[in-house]
Amino acid sequence: MKVSDILRVKGNTLYTVSPGQPLADAVQTMAEFDIGSLVVMDHGDLVGMLTFREVIAAVVKNGGSVGQLTVRTVMDDAPLTCTPETEIDEVRRMMLGRHARYMPALDGKTLMGVISFYDVAKAVVDSQDFENRMLKAYIRDWPQEEVDADAPKP
């Protein structure tokens, strides 16, 4: 399974923010749409990720408020990225290695979507459920073996 498979099911709604935007506006967007991350774009290029992790760290560091902070001052400016062709197992390893919950998917420089750890977990569970159903159907339809007439009876 590849990232493109998840993006196809997930849809193509993307939430972005610019680096110069006030952090308060970004937090408002995250709350309004119930999302945990925003992709930070500048002149059409991905320049960072803003997740609730960076927001919480900034709020704590700033005495409990976002104040006049901008997105640029708190964003992760070197986020993990993947391509639509990246295998889900590799995405899972990358996310676990960096404790990342969100990963932008890029096709060249074009943002295709954002994969969350939830998306990856759901895809794995759905795939396992499908395989489980197929195996159960196969076992249920297992043909009866012919009984050898010369075999001793128990």
Can you lay out the helices and strands and say which pair or pack?
Blueprint (H helix, E strand, L loop, with lengths): L2 H8 L5 E2 L5 H11 L3 E6 L2 E7 H10 L9 H4 L13 H11 L3 E6 L2 E7 H24 L14
Parallel strand pairs: 1-2
Antiparallel strand pairs: 2-3, 4-5
- Backbone shape: elongated
- Percent helix, as a range, is 40-55%
> What is the averaged pLDDT score?
88
Q: What fold name goes in the CATH topology slot?
A: CBS-domain
Give the strand tally.
5
Based on secondary structure, the structural category is: alpha+beta
Note the total helix count: 6
The first-level CATH class is given as Alpha Beta
Largest sheet descriptor: 3 strands, mixed
Q: Could you give the order of strands across the largest sheet?
A: 1-2-3
The helix-strand sequence is HEHEEHHHEEH
> How far is the first residue's CA from the last residue's CA?
48 Å
Attribute tags:
two-stranded antiparallel sheet; CBS-domain; three-stranded mixed sheet; alpha+beta; 154 residues
Outline of the structure:
By secondary structure, the protein is of the alpha+beta class. 44% of the residues lie in helices and 18% in strands. The chain has a single domain, classed as CBS-domain (Roll).
Explain this structure.
The protein is α+β, with helices and mostly antiparallel strands and 154 residues long. It has one domain: CBS-domain, CATH 3.10.580.10. The protein has helices at 3-10, 23-33, 52-61, 71-74, 88-98, 117-140; strands at residues 16-17, 37-42, 45-51, 102-107, 110-116. Strands 1-2-3 form a three-stranded mixed sheet. A two-stranded antiparallel ribbon has the order 4-5. β1, α2 (23-33) and β2 (37-42) form a beta-alpha-beta unit. It is elongated and about 75 Å long.
